Amino acid sequence: MLLCITAKSQSWQPGYFYDVKGTKNAGLIRINPGGKGPIKDEGFIEYKEDAKAETIKLSASDLRSFVASRDSFIVAAAPPMGWAKNDLDFVRVAVDGPLRLFEAKGGAGSGGGSGFQPGIGLGVAGGGGTGGFGGGLGGGISIPIGGGGHGKSGKSVYYFGANTAGMKPITEQNFIDVMSEIMGDEPDVVEKIQTKKFGPHDMDKLIAYYNQVIAGDAQK
């Protein structure tokens, strides 16, 4: 199971999930619980309707997508190659838009959950009555969780696409063009991408800066 268990990531977050039938269920979600999940080789979350309700473990195959705090996640399948512990897990929507940026966590070991910490991304709303963000396109789509040869514990690997069905990896070669398009609504961010003030290895800092600029624009 993916590793990134911290006190923060073990906390309950307000959110909701869409099940495989497209039904939305609001409540509290814990995205990185400890212990074993309901189904072997699948990531899982914990859910309860409110603080006093019974805790329910939901395996990746029970879900289409979920939102916890400010972050949105989609279910995605990993290839049967051995460098990804789970066959079915979650990818985070790092930036939402016509062309989206997705984040996958690599790693193997013990423990439960998705390997993500809550509340660190831009966050988007789930897709209304369509069955969750992306209309459930994440379920059953084969993408390389953790990336080939990059599956170190907790390491992020990024992909881009209009949806999970067409995701492609961010590389050294396509970084400037792809990220300029994804973040094209903020010219200042694009300028820093194209002048190489941010590169493929600065993705966390770039996303944080992009979110900071968006927040500043919202306050104007």
Features:
220 residues; alpha+beta; 15% helix; 10 strands; ten-stranded antiparallel sheet
Describe the structure.
It is built from 3 helices and 10 strands. It has a 10-stranded antiparallel β-sheet, with helices on one face. The longest helix is centred in the C-terminal third of the chain and has 17 residues. Helices cover 15% and strands 26% of the residues. With 220 residues, it is of the alpha+beta class.
Mean pLDDT: 76
Structural class: alpha+beta
Helix count equals 3
Overall shape = globular
Report the portion of residues in β strands: 25-35%
- Structural Rg: 17 Å
Largest sheet: 10 strands, antiparallel
pLDDT < 50 stretches:
1-9, 107-111, 117-132, 134-153
How many strand units? 10
Q: CA-to-CA gap between the ends? A: 43 Å
Could you give the order of strands across the largest sheet? 4-3-2-1-5-6-7-8-9-10
Order of helices and strands: EEEEEEEEEEHHH
Residues in helix, %: 10-25%
Quick take:
This protein has 220 residues and is an alpha+beta fold. Helix content is 15%, strand content 26%.
Write the layout of secondary structure elements.
Blueprint: E1 13-19, E2 24-30, E3 44-48, E4 56-59, E5 63-68, E6 71-77, E7 88-95, E8 100-105, E9 156-161, E10 168-169, H1 175-182, H2 187-194, H3 203-219
